[in-house]
Design goal:
5 strands; 168 residues; 34% helix; alpha+beta; Rossmann fold; five-stranded mixed sheet
């Protein structure tokens, strides 16, 4: 079998298994919610549409003194309080404050534009029951949580590439 045909068949099958084929692209309708400074980095709190009725909140870190456009990175958080952990803003009792803190600032200080979005089930996208609720409801709808998060990350990349500061 031709490698390119195999890759395309695999991509299509993975998209089907992850439920990606059930999503449709909507206008991002980006909003800037707040802007503040952390050292030499401008932090903008933003949100944008990933699917009808669902906006993803994120922090956008823009190095102040960098030649634009510049390379960009999407920073994905682990378990905890979502994007807030990446900037050390976690307020929840028992969170491991600072377990991921610092790397997004280091990337921005080195000249990268960094987007840190909340994943479904975390931060401002948390719901009663957390990941479990998203996982079970998603499976019932034929949309595994991995596919939901992948879709959100793909739309986050679309948002990042729409920014004039970013070198696509």
């Amino acid at each position: 079998m031709n490698l390119e045909l195999w890759r395309e068949a695999l991509r299509l099958k993975l998209s089907e298994i992850l439920g990606i084929t059930s999503y449709s692209i909507h206008d991002l309708e980006p909003r800037s919610l707040a802007t503040f400074r952390m050292g030499e980095v401008i932090v903008e709190k933003v949100d944008y549409v990933v699917e009808r009725g669902l906006r993803v909140p994120a922090y956008l870190l823009i190095p102040e003194n960098v030649k634009k456009p510049t390379p960009a990175i999407i920073a994905l958080h682990g378990h905890g309080s979502g994007k807030d952990d990446l900037l050390g803003f976690s307020k929840r009792e028992g969170d491991r404050k600072g377990h991921s803190q610092g790397f997004v600032m280091k990337l921005a200080e080195r000249g990268f534009v960094v987007l840190a979005p909340d994943a479904r089930g975390f931060g401002e996208m948390a719901v009663e029951g957390g990941c479990w609720t998203h996982s079970v409801v998603g499976l019932l709808l034929g949309r595994p949580i991995a596919g939901m998060r992948l879709w959100d990350d793909m739309r986050s990349l679309d948002y990042l590439l729409s920014r004039e500061e970013v070198d696509a």
